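Moderator note: this is an archived Q&A kept for reference. The question asked for a predicted structure of one protein chain; the sequence and the answer are reproduced below.
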Amino acid sequence: MKIGIVCYPTFGGSGVVATELGLALSKRGHEIHFITYSQPVRLDLLGNNVHFHEVNVPEYPLFLYQPYELALSSKLVDMVKLYGIEILHVHYAIPHAYAAYMAKKMLQEESIYVPIVTTLHGTDITLVGSHPFYKPAVTFSINKSDAVTSVSQSLKDDTLRLFDIKNEIDVVPNFIDFSRHKTHFTDCQRDIMANENEKIITHISNFRKVKQIPDVIKVFFNIQKQIPAKLMMVGEGPERLEAEQLCESLGITDKVVFFGNSNEIDKILCFSDLFLLPSVTESFGLAALEAMASGVPVISSNTGGIPEVNIDGVSGFLSNVNDVEDMSKNAIRILSDNNRLKEFKERAKEESKKFDISNIVPKYEAIYKRTLKKCMILK
């Protein structure tokens, strides 16, 4: 199949998943076309089966905000006609499904029929989509898609609760490419991050309010009072400065490392002993899954799709949102006994294997085939 993939090209979870999916599909013989405003961060392989097409938005003084949706829909039309793309897989209802629908209608005027598969990732539903300004557009985009998938059962339930959805929604979870988690690093590289007797605690996110960054710091503060430890903070976002100030006020600046955005996440996770994810909400919890795939147990909130990934008492522990004391207690329980830590590490790795990319990609292929078949009948 010739598949067009539209996603955000940034460090966020949806962009990573879309890129990994495209690369996996290309290895199975499909021709993949990424169409977005810059090359996705994990797209380091371009070849015969993988193509990238940049969406340029001309600057016009007339527009206070440059019309990306119009530029994207026009680019989609051009790429479908030029490369014979058979199906569009768009990640995020707005603006991508919205733009794809406009492209689809323009192409129909020329008797070209291209179905749209929309994958909902969370922010487009729980944060942006439910806002009254966007709700009609999100509802329209989902209902006009030829197939809709959601990354968790929790997100599907939220979507059906918040919007008047007529379409079926298939739950296809996020996944992990285990080939990226087979790297073995040396102890001397670990020594750069922490002393031999120190446990390494890690948090990876976009440092937005929903991620509860102050709770990460507070949980670590409680841990390091009882167990020698270092905290690795990976990512960039609006809450970083406040987090740095909180570390300073608690007197733990020398025990916390702020990496910013990093392409060496696999290396950091390889040396980690515990992962913290106290978010207010997560549609899936991809960061937790990546940690588990590296054999790192997870201390997280029990919100959204996280309990579908992090199994309480097996791969880590779940606590209520904002319950810093319970998260701290659970973290110390795991870290205080090396045998118990080893067991949690092994179970976290085992649980993550359910989400191996080789189990998930065929589900998307089946949806593509079903959608193409349905559109051929309707056409």
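Archived answer notes: The chain has two domains: 2-175+357-378, 178-355.
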